[in-house]
């Protein structure tokens, strides 16, 4: 009896200590604004001396420790990217882990001839400095947003029959459109829908737009870093997680959880609004098909799922999983019975930025990147074939 008491007491102590540490480790404005590490974390882009573009992801692990991932060609290309950050080939990446920022010193040698040396400046003038084969680069901190953030169905010719399930502008009234699954429907962190509930209405074959924000949890890793899930019919999960800078595994953003990894990791940093635009076809039993754009980037292309994904249930609702992390949702609406033919990606995803594309006559034109076959629009970044979602462009060398 005495031994049992002692073991129980120790376990309770350890559990409570772990819980308190975890609770203190997450940040979600306005209630819990993030520390200085968050201002360092994020996306950087610039050029190497000589003109080649280079992007970087800087990922915080707390106490001014960071991973850095360098991306030759620039960042992942997002449609309508006002920062003009795109150009990465989605394959080449060079990584250094657990670099400590001391003052401005931020030093590490990476493979591929890359090295980082310092982070200087502040705010929008913050710069990651380094070299590539002895040539200097200075990459500027940029804040990008999803091109479909804030997309609404009102007044659209293609949105007939839509159902709006949550909008922060009508948040209190919209709570009546949700019911308890793990938790009662509630608003947190500035009038947004908190995870743990399910829709009162049903969802089957549909186009679904949904936006989510994960907390900044620098001391956590893996599935403990901003985890939730969006379950269609209760059974098929699109993963929600702080996946910024990760490789794009089948348990990260863009994945049908443990069924299909995303085509590419398109996750923005934590505390950013990430978006999913989902075309879902409900099959019989546990069958379903997904075409999904994350932040305007194609991550699932007619992907088939035949099982109930982990923690799912066979139902008819939209379920926002409580995985123990402080995740919020906004701007949730769907068009029942919509398909890729009735609501097209062109309806939803904005065209690439005019800073990257030229509207030109149908002629050939010589540029420093080679000879371009000019159709409706052309990318001048120098790649022979470019496909961004439904936009395909060709360079003829």
Radius of gyration: 23 Å
Beta-strand percent range: 35-45%
Largest sheet: 8 strands, antiparallel
Please state the oligomeric state of the protein chains shown: single chain
Q: Which parts are unreliable, with pLDDT below 50 for 5 consecutive residues or more?
A: 1-24, 355-397
How would you state the average pLDDT, rounded?
87
The class by helix and strand makeup works out as mainly beta
Number of domains: 3
What is the number of E strands? 27
Strand order, biggest sheet?
A: 4-3-2-1-8-7-6-5
CATH C-level class of the largest domain is Mainly Beta
What do you see in this structure?
The protein folds into 3 domains: 36-142, Lipocalin (Beta Barrel), CATH 2.40.128; 163-348, Exo-inulinase, domain 1 (Jelly Rolls, Sandwich), CATH 2.60.120.560; 357-396, no CATH class. 9% of the residues lie in helices and 37% in strands. The longest helix has 24 residues, at 2-25. With 397 residues, it is mainly β. It contains 4 helices and 27 strands. Residues 1-24 and 355-397 have low confidence and may be disordered. The strands form 6 sheets. The protein has an 8-stranded antiparallel β-sheet with strand order 4-3-2-1-8-7-6-5. The radius of gyration is 23 Å and the shape is globular.
């Amino acid at each position: 009896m005495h031994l049992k008491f002692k073991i129980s007491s120790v376990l309770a102590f350890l559990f409570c200590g772990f819980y308190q540490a975890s609770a203190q480790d997450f940040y979600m404005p306005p209630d819990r604004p993030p520390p200085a590490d968050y201002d360092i974390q994020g996306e950087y882009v610039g050029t190497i001396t000589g003109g080649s573009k280079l992007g970087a992801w800087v990922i915080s692990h707390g106490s001014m420790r960071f991973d850095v991932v360098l991306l030759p060609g620039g960042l992942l290309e997002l449609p309508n990217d006002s920062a003009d950050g795109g150009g990465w080939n989605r394959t080449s990446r060079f990584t250094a882990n657990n670099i400590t920022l001391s003052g401005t010193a931020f030093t590490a040698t990476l493979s591929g001839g890359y090295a980082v040396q310092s982070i200087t400046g502040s705010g929008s003038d913050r710069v990651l400095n380094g070299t590539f084969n002895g040539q200097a680069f200075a990459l500027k901190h940029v804040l990008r947003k999803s091109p479909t953030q804030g997309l609404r169905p009102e007044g659209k010719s293609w949105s007939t029959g839509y159902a709006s399930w949550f909008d922060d502008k009508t948040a209190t009234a919209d709570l009546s459109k949700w019911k308890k699954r793990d938790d009662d429907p509630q608003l947190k962190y500035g009038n947004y829908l908190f995870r743990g509930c399910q829709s009162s209405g049903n969802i089957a074959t549909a186009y679904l737009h949904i936006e989510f924000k994960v907390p900044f949890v620098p001391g956590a890793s893996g599935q403990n870093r901003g985890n939730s899930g969006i379950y269609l019919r209760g059974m098929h999960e699109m993963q929600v997680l702080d996946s910024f800078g990760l490789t794009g595994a089948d348990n990260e953003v863009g994945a049908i959880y443990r069924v299909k990894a995303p085509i590419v990791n398109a996750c923005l940093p934590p505390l950013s609004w990430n978006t999913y635009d989902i075309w879902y076809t409900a099959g019989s039993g546990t069958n379903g098909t997904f075409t999904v754009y994350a932040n305007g980037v194609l991550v699932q292309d007619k992907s088939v799922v035949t099982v109930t994904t982990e923690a799912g249930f066979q139902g008819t609702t939209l379920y926002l999983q409580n995985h123990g992390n402080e995740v919020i949702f906004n701007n949730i609406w769907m068009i029942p019975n919509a398909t890729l033919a009735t609501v097209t990606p062109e309806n939803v995803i904005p065209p690439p930025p005019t800073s990257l594309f030229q509207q030109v006559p149908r002629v050939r034109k010589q540029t420093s990147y080679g000879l371009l076959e000019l159709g409706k629009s052309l990318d001048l970044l120098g790649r022979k074939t470019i496909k961004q979602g439904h936009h395909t462009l060709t360079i003829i060398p």
